[in-house]
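dude i think i finally got it to work??
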Amino acid sequence: MKTVKWRQWIAAGLAGMLIILAGCQSVGGFAVDRVLENNLKSTSSESSLSYSIELVVKEGTVLTGEEAEMVRLINSLKLSVDHMKVQDPNRLSVKGSIDYQDQSVPFLMTVNESDMLLWLEGARKPIAFSNAPTDEWGEDYALQYRQLQEQMRQAAPTVASYLVKHLPNPNVVSVTNVTEKVHGESLNLHKLHVEIKGDEMIGLVKKMLESIAKDEAGLKEIIGVLYDVYYPIMTQAMDLYGEAEDSESSLGAGLIKNKEAAVLMLYELIRESLDHALADFDKETAKWLEQEKELKQVLSKDTSLDIDLFVDNQMRIRKQNVAFTIAMPDAADVPFGKVIVRAESETWNINQPVQADTIDAKGGVLQFGMYASGSKLTANFEKDSTVYRILKDDLKVTQKQFYIAQNDELYYDWYDLTWSMLDGAAMVPIWAFADQLEADVTWVPQYKQVVVDDPITELSLRFTIGSDTVYVNGTAQTMSQPVTVDADGTAHAPLRFLAETLGAELKWDEEYKEFIVTRD
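look at this
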């Protein structure tokens, strides 16, 4: 539990970065909101960028072996994008490398409106991630999903500009004229320098809320913009479930379809919520920080955000340097004094013709989703590649350990994987055992065979119901017992054969009468 908690604090700090990177108001006539709006309206560009993170251990802290290794790995990581090409709002490519310790792994990523492909050096096939509704969701939904994405993209500059207009300036902000090189070209640029301390954050939030509460026209306008984006979804939901006959539901449906009435109602709700929040803002935030002492330490002057934005005469960001320092809580289970995130980027060829790179996927792809197998991901890389070694040896994504309890009245309802005795041999369900190792199991009914394909060992095991002969990559081997089928129709095979053939270690726990299976 110790490790989990400080990881959560790091994640919370990084999430906070997204909030405070939003911007600030006009500085000496320099319209920051216009800069952000122009950036979001950009349809094509080329750029380079780099990201790194540093965990700074508290002085005098002694890390466990696992923690020290994780610090070493994270501090050696660096993402370098040599060339990002944005062809249009739906298509881009990113070419660069991931630096890890003393090694560098080249990569190429492409994105379009339906999917994302990622190629890493050593990969046998590109890795595919879907970023669109699947076919089974239906054509109508898929079309509305794409329309919503486009509407949100179009509304983003307006919404961002509105928020930035209401963000107060931090204590340190300035604009100077400088000459900087961008992609090898010397340019005369405006340098916007911003420093934000953690102890300023709550005050800045209060001023922003006060500013929004006073801007009735602007708030109604932005509600109207969001109404136009989400109205099709609301009407679709009403059409899907049908409008109820009772007067209350009919009134609600009619209100949603009347933009002017809906905007007015939402404005009143938001304004009432703002007034309520601001009435006791200082008292409630002080009480909150007193209760959350660790968060109070994070929101101290030791947390800081330093931003340098270099903007051309057309109010477009051409270069940016960001350093975000997160002060960590002074707690026994947080071994770090601070976390530092650094980012640098340069942008050129803005709104000019750009052709994104492509990835050859003719040989197929490895489809990767929320429940993707770590073993299949690892097996997709050549065994002598850097990525394979990182996944298997450093991150240990293929490491497995599980328990197999005896199949009796005491354990049967609690364990999906149990063993039973047959003539001196422990038998287990083939599919359940293989599933624990993230292997694929296929039933071939015409031959009454169960086929297990294991991506890590690259072995294919073909079992035949009622036979003690199994074919391992086409070579016949004999098991101590034939494959049996229980009353539920589940095929069972000798446990020791399965474990040893698939490269696992088998141990017996006498106290609990269970087997422990481990595979590195």
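The radius of gyration is 29 Å.
im so relieved honestly
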